[in-house]
Amino acid sequence: MAVTDAAIDKIKQMITSGELAPGDRLPKEADLAERLGLSRNSLREAVRALALINVLDVRQGDGTYVTSLQPHLLLEAMSFVVDFHRDDTVLQFLEVRRVLEPAATAMAAMNMPDEDVKELRAILDALPADPSVEELVANDLRFHQHIAAGSGNPVLCSLIDSLSGPTTRARVWRGLTQEGALDDTREQHVMICDAIAARRPEVARAWATVHVAGVEEWLRRTL
After folding, report:
1. Which of 93, 112, 132, 209 could anchor a disulfide with 166, C-beta 3.0 to 4.6 Å?
2. pTM over 0.90
3. Has keyword Secreted (predicted)?
């Protein structure tokens, strides 16, 4: 194991064991390096790497702290990485969406507060009668992000949000080239919203599956 990797692993163990909790400040560099049997250079490299993935927060003039370790922070790195996808892998991202989003939609039908259901309806109503493709896609992203948040599961919400980027281009492409894409999107969004408002999780799951699968099947035929 490389020296820096070993240093990362030792700091990780301190966090996972509970020795360092979210919000805790790390000991001074010299003390921590001696305690872990590391050179100060190796420790600095490990801290730098863990800061890049939002495990540690380096505050100039103050010290280094463990972050909140909330899912949205830790999954930001994944969101960055998936943006490097190639066009021929977008179907794989859509397949993952087809697994995750219907589950989140069913959970939203059970867990989303009434006020948030009203806001979901307002997102639908905010779409102009004759929107541009950009307006349609932006509205679509807001709609699905709101549902994911309404699932009540921050990890699931963060996963869905981090995976949404690679499929945005496919949504734009579909909006530009497929006849009836706007009407289909509107209808399916309304049915999803109605099912959530009626607290019918399996109906919500079914419509979400139809919605994501529609984009996936269109892309399969197009490619």
Report:
1. 93
2. no
3. no
Q: Please give the chain's pLDDT, 223 residues, in tens.
A: 477 788 899 999 999 999 999 999 999 999 999 988 888 898 999 999 899 888 999 998 899 999 988 877 776 766 555 555 555 677 788 888 899 999 999 999 999 999 999 999 999 999 998 888 788 888 988 999 999 999 999 999 988 887 776 566 666 656 656 667 788 888 999 999 999 999 999 999 999 999 988 878 877 777 6
* 141-168: burial string, b at 16+ Cβ within 10 Å, e else: bbbbebbbbbbebeebbbbbbbbbebbe
